[in-house]
């Protein structure tokens, strides 16, 4: 081992190219073995300490040499501390056995250790103090009462809203029938006059058909026909109205009133809370809104703008200059696990297409007359596709709103449309993802144009959780999820574009945290994707009226506090 560490350098003493193997900590000279032997014999240097280079790396020696040399040169006073051996060194003679160890001055190490002890004591005091709240029954009772008051308040708001809606319906109904009665009364006078004239014309035409000449009969026929048309035009249009019940289910009522969630990190003190760290920000893209984003490598990414019907491959260094670009009326797209294919739901042609890196198109499956919406590909290459007969929020018994599970070749494997109770799972499956940790299918249900919810269910159709946003404060706008993804640990991340935030839910559906993207300068997060390095890519969008602004790409990472 000693021979391996020797290198050919000029010896500082003999100034010849030789195998340098020693360094004097007093003279700070590199010496060959011959000069080292001579160095030790001189009276002026016989007490110097020479270190074999195979015992101490150059980098470590440079860090320690000032402390060690100072101690050696001052034989009467030495105050070091060996961190490896946890021992104080009081004499210069005892330094030799600790030369290869991590040394520090006793004063410096003592100061650092005391600071660390104070920090630990403060942390323990804080944790012990906060844990006492677990036994504070009075506080728990008050929290329970406050929550009940919030539930009651929300219930009363819903009741008032229902009463106001009912009153509005009654007023509209009364007004309709009042207007209808007035309309019929006015029309009755006109109809009476015209009907008298029409009866006379009818009788006259009946007599003339047996007596009059043909020309006279033709003239009378035309006149009578015109009178009939005039009579018909005076008849009132008898408008009818019907009452159709709303399509809210018991789940919708629970959503409107609210629901209870485990808020493990609501206080921000839990070890499970997260922070968003910005890694890189690009310049503006050519798209007003980056509706979909899919990483295709370390610096290349596929982005799409639904409004512009455009999919682009861009590099982060020049996002406004696409490497490749093609036009397609898509609803969603995603890449395969190995990144070799891009799967696109072609809304116009009602099919699922796959695109290679060379730009070759392959039709995987046609759904006509149904329309494909969201798409996701798992690590095992299974494809999940949303299908609808219409992307409107109007749903009836004949509507088709489902998620299909396909093989990579497009062969049907399963369909998810109803839960175990036979209740329809979603209105419009807008985006979907599969949580690889528990195999739950997570879907954004766009049940309303301006809002939505997230539903997670397993392959038996059992609903694991429904999430309609954390809107406990009036400062939040209505929850409008635009994308969903899952981390390698199993947390579900949801983009909330209008609130500039990410909602984090654990794999059991318990709310963890609401992260503001404004903290790292991200406005209107619209799309996102997590790559193999656990980096979170975010694409931004802007309101349709803000045509001058362009969407941007951000690379971030979720880290635990």
From TrEMBL:
<dbReference type="InterPro" id="IPR047153">
    <property type="entry name" value="TRIM45/56/19-like"/>
</dbReference>
<protein>
    <recommendedName>
        <fullName>B box-type domain-containing protein</fullName>
    </recommendedName>
</protein>
<dbReference type="InterPro" id="IPR011042">
    <property type="entry name" value="6-blade_b-propeller_TolB-like"/>
</dbReference>
